[in-house]
Design brief:
Two copies of one chain form a homodimer. Chain A folds into two domains: 156 residues, Sandwich (Jelly Rolls), CATH 2.60.120; 82 residues, Orthogonal Bundle (Arc Repressor Mutant, subunit A). Helices cover 43% and strands 21% of the residues of chain A. Chain A has nine helices and ten strands. The first copy, chain A, has a four-stranded antiparallel β-sheet with strand order 1-7-2-5. The first copy, chain A, has a three-stranded antiparallel β-sheet with strand order 4-3-6. Chain A has a three-stranded antiparallel β-sheet with strand order 8-10-9. In chain A, a hairpin with a 2-residue loop joins strand 9 and strand 10. In chain A, helix 4 packs across helix 5, helix 6 packs across helix 9 and helix 7 packs across helix 8. The longest helix of chain A has 27 residues. The N terminus of chain A is likely disordered. At the A-B interface, strand 4, helix 4, helix 5 and helix 7 of A face strand 4, helix 4, helix 5 and helix 7 of B. Chain A binds a DNA duplex (30 and 30 nucleotides) through helix 8.
DNA sequence: CGGCCTTTTGACAGGCTTCAAACTGGGTGG
DNA sequence: CCACCCAGTTTGAAGCCTGTCAAAAGGCCG
């Protein structure tokens, strides 16, 4: 499915260049190259994908209430999404890293229900959903692709979120989430054992339903026990086996 | 989209007859009538949907490892799904009531990852997924329908599951889940304020990450405070406003 | 009507949150 | 380039919430 077209857009890229990373991950998704590969005959082919929008730390890819018009692919960087409760408190609904999609929960409502904010300088590609749907009317491959994207999202939500709800201790929650993060980095072709935690302890706590102090204390305990190494927001997993045990087993450990 | 065909299948039905309920809810989904309405010209039209399979309490609609071949619609009754951890402990992944879909998380893996077991005598319709996909190649409406189904599932997971993860107290969790259950019954045309809890306290606790005793105690407290009325597994919500407050607000109430 | 599973209620121990204070690190301006 | 500053992080102490263990009461099904 790769086309020169595709590579042209990334020309001059180097390994550390976010534009290059973008296409590397989109390729893994087989979404970007598809969007640029199909429909070449049309003059509007470029409109289906808006490439490499730069979003600085603290800026918003989209806000709650914005009309939904495109699926966002994170090329590099990280984004958190959150909803505001009526009483003013915030509920973080997810963290999204390079190669992942954002905003799929709005495909039916046609309106974003969460705010999205960049945790660090971030590049995103936007794929216009209405155009992608039109493409589906013509292309068998597009149909299967979009089914796969939606299905993956459902499977991901079920498999990752459920253990976090059912976890009976803070230890379980944090261990489980670290492992799921690790898997996500691996799936994007990055290191499984060593990665950057772009979110603050407070954000993590809010997401997992824990106080930020508890998160901090658990990290310290994990370090003491040799499970992980931590330098500021850079984490390395040293003992995946035991971490997995803590994620599933009863809190009596 | 309704056809005589459709009504024929439910003939002789009465309001309390599960077969009638089946079609009532499927109509709400616009999935069943579509499946029987489209493709009438074909001789295979009946194969796309397998109607009204009866499943007794304790029986399994499907097991983990089974090949995924159809989307299950619950006509009447209730089903829980759960996964087994390596250490033998179970993690309940969801409760499904009449009018809802099951097994969507397997559309891509092509293999079920959870066990599903009926909490009471249950009727389900099965819609063959491969046939539905083929239908998508021919029908615009089928495409939009399946997008809507998948999109709804994603939105549901995001909106319902996230608050449960982020809840900071047992009270929040249980109140939030009762309200989301209530919404689900309403969406299916049933009473918002009065419904049956098909699952045991233990199941609820397992799902929410609470001890069954805690669930029981919270129910008692809710009753004492006049928020709900409880008779065995029949619940009535008396003060939705305050229950909503407990679902979002800090545990200091 | 009897047996069994579920639910309720109590007591206690332990984990988590809250409040508070000291510390660290990244970003800014001189 | 360095010092400063502030947000984020770590660590401590105390109190509440929730899990665990235990026993009694209730409800459902044969």
């Amino acid at each position: 499915m790769l086309t020169e077209d595709h590579f042209t857009l990334s020309e001059g890229a180097e390994h550390n260049n976010p534009r290059f990373l973008a296409c590397k991950y989109c390729r893994a998704l087989s979404l970007c190259e598809f969007s640029s590969g199909e429909g070449r005959q049309s003059k509007n082919d470029r409109k289906i994908i808006k490439r490499h929008r730069k979003i600085r730390r603290g800026e918003f890819p989209y806000r709650a209430g914005d009309p939904f018009h495109s699926i966002c692919v994170i090329c590099s960087g990280a984004v958190k999404t959150y909803a505001l409760n009526r009483d003013g408190s915030v509920q973080i609904t997810g963290f999204h890293i390079s190669g992942e999609l954002m905003g799929l929960n709005a495909v039916n409502t046609k309106q974003h229900t969460c705010d999205a904010v960049a945790l660090e300088n971030t590049y995103i590609c936007e794929i216009l959903y209405s155009h992608l749907q039109e493409l589906c009317d013509e292309s068998f491959i597009a149909r299967r692709l979009i089914f796969r994207i939606l299905g993956d999202q459902i499977a991901h939500d079920q498999m990752v979120l459920m253990p976090l709800i059912g976890a009976k201790s803070a230890t379980q929650k944090l261990a489980a989430y670290l492992l799921s993060l690790s898997q996500r980095f691996e799936r994007r072709g990055l290191s499984t054992d060593e990665f950057r935690l772009s979110m603050s302890r407070g954000d993590l706590g809010n997401y997992l339903g824990l106080a930020k102090e508890t998160v901090s204390r658990l990290f310290s305990r994990f370090v003491d026990e040799g499970l992980i190494t931590l330098k500021a927001r850079h984490i390395r997993i040293n003992d995946r086996k035991r971490l997995t045990l803590m994620a599933t087993k009863a809190p009596s450990v």
